[in-house]
């Protein structure tokens, strides 16, 4: 990835834009990137692209002619297919996992956990340089992937580590491959407990072990959760079922 791309968009966003441009036969990738950036702002992330509609894309492609009925030379069906690619639907080569359905209160006895990730559903990132945080809701009886939060916008902040910590302020635990002392202090102040997985690992494998720990949380985890140690034993029966 070029230095410009690494600073202006995630790899996933670059993949989606490239495929969308190919669907819009005749549209240049560079032109589409510039048009999207002018509308959505930099950096371009998969989260921003997920909010694009076919009408938005027509106006973006129309540019200075957006007020002239937005006739851009692409039929509605082709625009819709391009938009779905920008959303990540049917994208071949995507590393990102699908999100799980979740509503607040679905998982009693659960905690929210962030995982520093650069690829797929892996814990393989340094806190200060990972491309995104995978955010899970984890209970003794199950776990769900709720969100994938790009870190590119946080990296434009004057204090990038504080901005990254703010991204996961709703989490109680964050798994990272590595993290420096000052950054760890900012994570703790944001309300999360950093845990190092030095060799990296598949996120769901690590979280499966955490699920068992939640049944009788050790003191550090109980404190992070705001409960008394072993206070989740009542959910052990649910796990066994």
What does this structure look like?
By secondary structure, this protein is α/β, with parallel strands linked by helices. The chain has two domains: 3-87, Orthogonal Bundle (DNA polymerase, domain 1); 111-240, Nucleotidyltransferase, domain 5 (2-Layer Sandwich). Helix content is 41%, strand content 15%. It has a five-stranded mixed sheet with strand order 4-3-1-5-6. The chain has a two-stranded antiparallel ribbon with strand order 2-7. It is elongated. It starts with a helix and ends with a helix.
Care to give the gist of this entry?
This protein has helices at 3-8, 11-23, 29-40, 46-49, 54-62, 76-87, 160-167, 181-189, 203-215, 219-225, 236-240, and strands spanning 111-117, 122-123, 132-139, 142-150, 173-176, 193-196, 201-202.
Outline the secondary-structure elements:
Elements: H1 3-8, H2 11-23, H3 29-40, H4 46-49, H5 54-62, H6 76-87, E1 111-117, E2 122-123, E3 132-139, E4 142-150, H7 160-167, E5 173-176, H8 181-189, E6 193-196, E7 201-202, H9 203-215, H10 219-225, H11 236-240
Parallel strand pairs: 1-5, 5-6
Antiparallel strand pairs: 1-3, 2-7, 3-4
Helix pairs in contact: 2-6, 5-6
């Amino acid at each position: 990835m070029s230095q410009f791309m690494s600073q202006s968009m995630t790899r996933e966003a670059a993949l989606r834009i490239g495929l969308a441009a190919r669907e819009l036969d005749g549209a240049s990738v560079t032109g589409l990137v510039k048009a999207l950036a002018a509308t959505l702002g930099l950096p371009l992330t998969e989260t921003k692209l997920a909010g694009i509609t076919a009408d938005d894309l027509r106006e973006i492609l129309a540019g200075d002619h957006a007020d002239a009925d937005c006739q851009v030379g692409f039929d509605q069906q082709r625009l819709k297919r391009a938009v779905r690619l920008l959303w990540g639907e049917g994208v071949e080569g995507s590393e990102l996992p699908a999100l799980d359905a979740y509503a607040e209160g679905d998982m009693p006895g659960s905690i929210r956990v962030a995982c520093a990730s650069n690829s797929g559903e892996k814990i393989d990132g340094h806190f200060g340089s990972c491309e995104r945080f995978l955010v899970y809701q984890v209970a003794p009886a199950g776990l769900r992937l709720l969100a994938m939060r790009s870190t590119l916008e946080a990296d434009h902040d004057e204090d990038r580590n504080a901005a990254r910590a703010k991204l996961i302020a709703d989490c109680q635990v964050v798994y990272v491959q590595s993290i420096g002392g000052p950054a760890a202090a900012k994570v703790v102040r944001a309300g999360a407990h950093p845990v190092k997985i030095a060799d990296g690992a598949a996120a769901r494998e690590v979280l499966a072990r955490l699920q068992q720990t939640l049944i009788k949380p050790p003191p550090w985890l109980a404190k992070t959760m705001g409960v008394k140690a072993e206070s989740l034993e009542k959910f052990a029966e649910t796990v066994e079922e």
